[in-house]
């Protein structure tokens, strides 16, 4: 009996696909890394730098204000008073947590930017003096 040739499984890859996989690995790692590369030091706008903490602060403030409204409804409303008493403090605490996290995040980003600028300045000085 003759055994038919085995068809390649999905888990097995052809040599061409293995080459493509290894050649794209370096660029994928650079793109997915958290720290920015020294070579991509294009100037970014303030919005590009601070948009995440600004969004967190905005959402936190909105949730906090919503919690204030719901908590005040528990004092005024007689109907569904227990629901307002449960949900109000939950929204208050969640909003306050997001607000504080966003407000703490902004100085951390500023400090990181200052360190990055100092590092780039020192690297340019080092390359100026040692590459002569």
TrEMBL record:
Membrane topology annotation: Multi-pass membrane protein
Entry GO terms, CC: plasma membrane
TM stretches of this protein: 54-78, 90-109
Coiled coil: none
Subcellular location: Membrane
Chain intervals for the UniProt region annotation (Disordered): 1-23
Main localization category: membrane
Biased composition (Basic and acidic residues): 7-16
Record bears the keyword Transmembrane: yes
PANTHER family per record: PHOSPHOINOSITIDE-INTERACTING PROTEIN, PHOSPHOINOSITIDE-INTERACTING PROTEIN FAMILY MEMBER
Protein name per the record: PIRT protein
Organism of origin: Ibidorhyncha struthersii
Gene: Pirt
């Amino acid at each position: 009996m003759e055994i038919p040739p085995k068809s390649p499984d999905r888990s097995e890859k052809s040599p061409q696909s293995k080459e493509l996989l290894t050649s794209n690995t370096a660029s994928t790692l650079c793109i997915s890394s958290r720290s920015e590369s020294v070579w991509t030091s294009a100037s970014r706008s303030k919005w590009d730098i601070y948009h995440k903490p600004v969004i967190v602060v905005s959402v936190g403030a909105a949730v906090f204000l919503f919690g204030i409204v719901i908590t005040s409804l528990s004092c005024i409303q007689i109907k569904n008073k227990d629901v307002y008493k449960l949900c109000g403090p939950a929204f208050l605490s969640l909003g306050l947590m997001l607000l504080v996290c966003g407000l703490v995040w902004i100085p951390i980003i500023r400090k990181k930017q200052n360190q990055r600028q100092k590092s780039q300045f020192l690297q340019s000085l080092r390359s100026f003096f040692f590459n002569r």
